[in-house]
Amino acid sequence: MRSRIAFLIIVAALAVSLVSLVFGLGSDFGGKGHGMSGVIPPSLWLVLIGAPLFVAIFVFGSAMFFPELSEKKIEDEPSPLPVVEKGESNLDAVLRVLKEDERKVIETMVAEGGTMLQKDIRWKTGFSRVKTHRILSRLAERGVVFAKKYHNTNKITLADWLFETKKS
């Protein structure tokens, strides 16, 4: 997608530059020749030709030096599932694959009994309101926590499956 946009910008810039060049030659660049002589100063023609060329070169260079990482969206990739070993709880397996800030939230909730208000999680972890909300949203999307409206905040509960232990 990004490469198509870069291509269109380059083509448009070159077209503007070419049209400016053609009209500039027709007007003799402000000289005493025929056409629109003297109406448009040579410095303006330089800008009309040079600026689009500069844009085209810049876009081409940035496309060459900073290629796209991938056309595939990150959301399309499946997230790795933690492997639960014998005798290990699901909680331990999940904690191994969480980001550091997510792990801090889960550990705080486990220490408090598995259910907390969102504002209390914020105070215990020291995260901002926005960061706490984003972390909890990510965890709720994956089914690790559940949120329920509770007055001006949310009541956050850890999922029951986190406390199961693999027996075989």
Give an account of the 3D structure:
The protein has 168 residues and is mainly alpha-helical. The chain has 2 domains: 2-65; 87-163, Winged helix-like DNA-binding domain superfamily/Winged helix DNA-binding domain (Arc Repressor Mutant, subunit A, Orthogonal Bundle), CATH 1.10.10. The protein is built from 6 helices and 3 strands; from the N terminus they run H-H-H-H-E-H-H-E-E. Strands 1-3-2 form a 3-stranded antiparallel β-sheet. It is elongated, with a radius of gyration of 30 Å.
**Percentage of residues in helical conformation:** 40-55%
Please give the radius of gyration in angstroms. Answer: 30 Å
Question: Can you tell me the CATH class of the largest domain?
Answer: Mainly Alpha
Give me the secondary-structure category.
Answer: mainly alpha
Q: Counting H and I runs of at least 4 residues, what is the number of helices?
A: 6
Beta-strand portion reads 5-15%
Task: Report the strand count.
Answer: 3
Contiguous runs where pLDDT drops below 50 for at least 5 residues = 69-76
Element string (H = helix, E = strand):
HHHHEHHEE
Q: Give the CATH architecture of the largest domain.
A: Orthogonal Bundle
Write down the overall geometry. elongated
| Count of distinct structural domains | 2
